[in-house]
Amino acid sequence: MTVDLLLGLQWGDEGKGKIVDVLTSNYDIIARFQGGPNAGHTLEFDGIKHVLRTIPSGIFHKTAINIIGNGVVIDPVVFQKEIEGLAKFNLDIKSKLIISRKAHLILPTHRLLDAASEASKGKAKIGSTLKGIGPTYMDKTGRNGLRVGDTELEDFEERYRALADKHEEMIKFYDVNIQYNLAEMEKEFFESIEVLKSLDFIDSEEYLNQAQRAGKSILCEGAQGSLLDVDFGTYPFVTSSNTTAAGACTGLGIAPNKIKEVYGIFKAYVTRVGSGPFPTELFDEDGATMASVGNEFGSVTGRQRRCGWLDLVALKYAVQINGVTQLMMMKGDVLSGFETLKVCTDYNYKGKTISHFPYNIEPENVTPIFKEFKGWHQDLTGMTTYDQLPIELKEYIEFIEKEVEVPIKIVSVGPDRKQTILK
Ligand code: 2SA
Ligand code: MG
């Protein structure tokens, strides 16, 4: 049966959590394939707001099975807190959540290494979420990492010790001032490993391929966004995994020819947390309005997100790399009240007009070229059909569809599950 894929097309926080939650009733299995607790997937329903970190966004659905795939990095300490935070919902977590043995573990020292690396970079820091993501993926590709399956081995503690000792030496190498009590962090770590072990570990690639053959439908849930992809994003200001469509194949063991729909999610404007270039960024009133009306604060770190106009050069790039078949536009409601809206259609790149996303989008090379649109003033948050939307918004939507050459199938007009318009 079908395997579909859902991805963020910008710098994360497009609203993936909400859409997975909306779509889950159509799927038997929801699978996360990359990233880890750097993600903050926010779900809102029945007056409840909940942020998920490592657990897939199908966990609130009655029957869906949720899988944490091999491409994900898991911090058992954060994971334990996530499980505890879900207790009040009385979900039967053990029967609904399974974990790949091949997923890598974030050790306490990975978090310290992340902090040390960022501190050593000073102003040039990546602006990481400090969750240990980079160092854990470094150990994975460097072939030194510990995986979920290793917790079942008798000598897990020795393996842990050897790696943590090595990390301590590396922390010294950075020569920065970082205060920590490793013994305490380790106590917490080993307790949380027991919580992790209370769930079922599986060979998830086998599970998913069997399920697919048996006619089950699978939704692969991406984290972060395409412009944070380690290969295609604004390197080095990226995360350490492949956030694009290919990441679903390597992060779950699903072959490319099994994937059918690729849902691409984007905001009607653009946001970014952390450092790195952002051509359409606003430093004025308009940017401040987007941040406050859109409540643009990191759901993990609370950092204020940088805001700017929609960038079609970047959006087309992401659509192309992912093979997006359907678009979903989020947060159109936040743009209500602007007299004029701008959309970046091309870049002025070192004096030439270009319409592709170049190697370097630093401000000294790139100035965005904008097209202006008339704004609208209606409150969209109670609207339920496409016909009700203001004509100016429809023009905005139809322009994007024409430029990007992919239909926009969902227009979200608020954070709640119910505030979702199908087009
Ligand atoms: P990392 O921690 O090594 O992955 O950070 C590297 C860069 O990736 C960015 N990044 C994110 N950007 C947006 N949202 C993310 N998740 C959280 C959220 C972030 C938060 O949903 O709000 O709470 O601040 C996320 N995760 C990583 C990060 O900012 C760095 O630029
Ligand atoms: Mg988020």
From TrEMBL:
<dbReference type="InterPro" id="IPR001114">
    <property type="entry name" value="Adenylosuccinate_synthetase"/>
</dbReference>
<feature type="binding site">
    <location>
        <position position="305"/>
    </location>
    <ligand>
        <name>GTP</name>
    </ligand>
</feature>
<dbReference type="Pfam" id="PF00709">
    <property type="entry name" value="Adenylsucc_synt"/>
</dbReference>
<feature type="active site" description="Proton acceptor">
    <location>
        <position position="13"/>
    </location>
</feature>
<comment type="similarity">
    <text>Belongs to the adenylosuccinate synthetase family.</text>
</comment>
<feature type="binding site">
    <location>
        <position position="143"/>
    </location>
    <ligand>
        <name>IMP</name>
    </ligand>
</feature>
<feature type="binding site" description="in other chain">
    <location>
        <begin position="13"/>
        <end position="16"/>
    </location>
    <ligand>
        <name>IMP</name>
    </ligand>
</feature>
<feature type="binding site">
    <location>
        <begin position="12"/>
        <end position="18"/>
    </location>
    <ligand>
        <name>GTP</name>
    </ligand>
</feature>
<feature type="active site" description="Proton donor">
    <location>
        <position position="41"/>
    </location>
</feature>
<comment type="function">
    <text>Plays an important role in the de novo pathway of purine nucleotide biosynthesis. Catalyzes the first committed step in the biosynthesis of AMP from IMP.</text>
</comment>
<dbReference type="InterPro" id="IPR018220">
    <property type="entry name" value="Adenylosuccin_syn_GTP-bd"/>
</dbReference>
<feature type="binding site">
    <location>
        <begin position="40"/>
        <end position="42"/>
    </location>
    <ligand>
        <name>GTP</name>
    </ligand>
</feature>
<keyword id="KW-0342">GTP-binding</keyword>
<feature type="binding site" description="in other chain">
    <location>
        <position position="239"/>
    </location>
    <ligand>
        <name>IMP</name>
    </ligand>
</feature>
<protein>
    <recommendedName>
        <fullName>Adenylosuccinate synthetase</fullName>
        <ecNumber>6.3.4.4</ecNumber>
    </recommendedName>
</protein>
<comment type="pathway">
    <text>Purine metabolism; AMP biosynthesis via de novo pathway; AMP from IMP: step 1/2.</text>
</comment>
<feature type="binding site" description="in other chain">
    <location>
        <begin position="38"/>
        <end position="41"/>
    </location>
    <ligand>
        <name>IMP</name>
    </ligand>
</feature>
<keyword id="KW-0436">Ligase</keyword>
<dbReference type="GO" id="GO:0004019">
    <property type="term" value="F:adenylosuccinate synthase activity"/>
</dbReference>
<keyword id="KW-0479">Metal-binding</keyword>
<feature type="binding site">
    <location>
        <begin position="331"/>
        <end position="333"/>
    </location>
    <ligand>
        <name>GTP</name>
    </ligand>
</feature>
<feature type="binding site">
    <location>
        <position position="40"/>
    </location>
    <ligand>
        <name>Mg(2+)</name>
    </ligand>
</feature>
<feature type="binding site" description="in other chain">
    <location>
        <position position="129"/>
    </location>
    <ligand>
        <name>IMP</name>
    </ligand>
</feature>
<dbReference type="InterPro" id="IPR033128">
    <property type="entry name" value="Adenylosuccin_syn_Lys_AS"/>
</dbReference>
<feature type="active site">
    <location>
        <position position="140"/>
    </location>
</feature>
<keyword id="KW-0658">Purine biosynthesis</keyword>
<keyword id="KW-0460">Magnesium</keyword>
<feature type="binding site">
    <location>
        <begin position="412"/>
        <end position="414"/>
    </location>
    <ligand>
        <name>GTP</name>
    </ligand>
</feature>
<feature type="binding site" description="in other chain">
    <location>
        <position position="303"/>
    </location>
    <ligand>
        <name>IMP</name>
    </ligand>
</feature>
<feature type="binding site">
    <location>
        <position position="13"/>
    </location>
    <ligand>
        <name>Mg(2+)</name>
    </ligand>
</feature>
<feature type="binding site">
    <location>
        <begin position="299"/>
        <end position="305"/>
    </location>
    <ligand>
        <name>substrate</name>
    </ligand>
</feature>
<keyword id="KW-0547">Nucleotide-binding</keyword>
<feature type="binding site" description="in other chain">
    <location>
        <position position="224"/>
    </location>
    <ligand>
        <name>IMP</name>
    </ligand>
</feature>
<keyword id="KW-0963">Cytoplasm</keyword>
<comment type="subunit">
    <text>Homodimer.</text>
</comment>
